[in-house]
Write a structure and sequence with these properties.
Layout: H1 9-19, E1 23-24, H2 36-46, H3 61-75, E2 85-88, H4 90-102, E3 108-113, H5 119-125, E4 129-134, E5 136-138, E6 141-143, H6 146-152, E7 157-163, H7 175-187, E8 192-196, H8 223-226, E9 229-234, H9 235-239, E10 247-250, H10 253-266, H11 272-284, H12 293-310, E11 314-316, E12 323-327, H13 335-345, E13 348-349, E14 351-352, E15 366-369, H14 374-387
Parallel strand pairs: 1-13, 3-4, 3-7, 7-8, 8-9
Antiparallel strand pairs: 2-10, 5-6, 9-10, 11-12, 12-15, 14-15
The structure holds pyridoxal-5'-phosphate (PLP).
């Protein structure tokens, strides 16, 4: 299998947004400012001459300890920072290291789509046989039909790659998923579950009117699954500094040993001063993992309500993360052309979902990121309302 050589849909839509001076709700970037305290910790660590050399490949130990405390505190599950937690260069590098470490060429893997765009390349570089299972995305919710996963499961399946809360749909982990996975894990003892929890603390009340976060859930909370699961996290997402490129892996010791063996040759270690800064920031007050919650919940409520009142679009509010999906119920353009068209005419840039599918399935849904200033969201809803006026079911596309 070859990796696609074209530019990513994110780069494409962002370039188009700037060409047409459109509001960029396409890129997944968080535009909310990170905590000034984190920035001060960054400066302090950068200014310390003793913090500019490699750390241990597994990561700066106090950061691993901090992550162990966070897991205990917010998920009630402990990991040993010595043998079970490793710091990586973002969740992205973690995923590539995990795939390389735990599989061999020709092994089979199953992943869920629409899928974050680095999953397929990670599986392809690992030369795995990758099977994609599609979520069922409806205005009433997002459904994961486990019987579709069952169709591909066999003793040859080495890896099941999941993502909760899910990008781009906002689908969160449900207790019923845990039950199914426990049963699967017992039936296939060689299977490893890899779960991308980049948005791990962002569990929202399903009703966007209620600006309420729910306690986060994780596969690690099942004692059985904890032993079969590799958790991939993004510290960049947690602290709102994705450019710092910090992530982590939490996994049982035997799996961690294998993952670290690969990780050390891919990148050796992540940036020392930035690891130090994040360790100090999060250990001083663990509740800082919720730093963006109020702003994100406020924006989810406002944006969903604006889209519903100003436009005729179907709106799917997320139960986690910071993306909302929209779809016109009367649309004959392929989603990619539609996204380009909206960028040029409505001057709102969105991400079409077809590039999140292995075979380019077009579900008609577009992804909008609401981690943006409130004014921008108001303006975006208004502009979309000019193309899809409220009360009309037919899209008026004035090319
Ligand atoms: C689901 C998911 N996984 C992983 C990542 C990448 O995380 P990182 O920036 O830590 O590499 C993202 C970034 O948008 C994401 O949405």
């Amino acid at each position: 299998m070859r990796i696609s050589e074209g530019e990513s849909i994110f780069a494409h839509m962002t370039a188009l947004a700037s060409q047409y001076e459109a509001l960029n709700l396409a890129q997944g970037l968080m535009w909310l400012q990170t905590s000034p305290v984190l920035l001060e910790e960054g400066i302090r660590a950068m200014s310390d001459p003793s913090l500019h050399q490699y750390t241990h490949p597994a990561g700066f130990y106090p950061l691993r300890e901090t992550l162990a405390h966070l897991s205990e505190r917010f998920f009630g599950v402990s990991y040993d920072p010595v043998s079970e937690i490793s710091i990586t260069v973002g969740a992205t590098q973690a995923l590539f290291s995990v795939v390389q470490a735990l599989t061999k060429p020709g092994d089979e893997a199953i992943f869920i789509e629409p899928a974050y765009d680095s999953y397929l390349p990670a599986l392809q570089i690992g030369t795995l046989k990758a099977y994609a299972v599609s979520l069922d995305i409806r205005p009433s919710g997002v459904f994961l039909h486990w019987e579709k996963v069952e169709r591909y499961l066999s003793p040859r399946t080495r890896l099941l790659l999941l993502n909760f809360p899910h990008n781009p749909t906002g689908r969160v982990l449900r207790p019923s998923d845990v039950k199914v996975l426990e049963e699967i894990a017992q039936r296939f003892p060689e299977l490893v579950i890899v779960v991308d929890e980049a948005y791990e603390y962002m569990y929202w009340h399903p009703d966007p009117e209620r600006e309420e976060a729910l306690p986060p859930r994780s596969l690690r909370q099942s004692p059985l699954l904890r032993e079969k699961t590799v958790i991939v996290g993004s510290l960049g997402k947690v602290v709102g500094a994705t450019g710092w490129r910090l992530g982590y892996v939490a996994a049982p010791a035997p799996l961690t040993t294998r993952i670290r063996a690969v990780h050390q040759f891919i990148t050796f270690c992540a940036s020392t001063p930035l690891q130090v800064a994040v360790a100090r920031y999060l250990s001083a007050d663990p509740h800082r993992v919720f730093y963006f919650h109020a702003a994100l919940l406020e924006r989810r409520k406002a944006f969903v309500s604006l889209l519903r009142s100003h436009t005729s679009l179907e709106v799917l509010p997320p139960e986690g993360g910071y993306f909302v999906l929209v779809r016109s119920n009367n649309q004959d353009l392929p989603d990619r052309l539609l996204a380009e068209h909206l960028t040029r005419t409505a001057k709102v840039a969105a991400i079409p979902l077809s590039p999140f599918y292995k075979d380019g399935t077009d579900s008609g849904w577009l992804r909008l990121c609401f981690a943006r200033p409130m004014d921008m969201l108001r303006e975006a809803a208004q502009r979309l309302g000019q193309v899809y006026p409220a009360g009309l079911s037919i899209a008026h596309l004035n090319e």
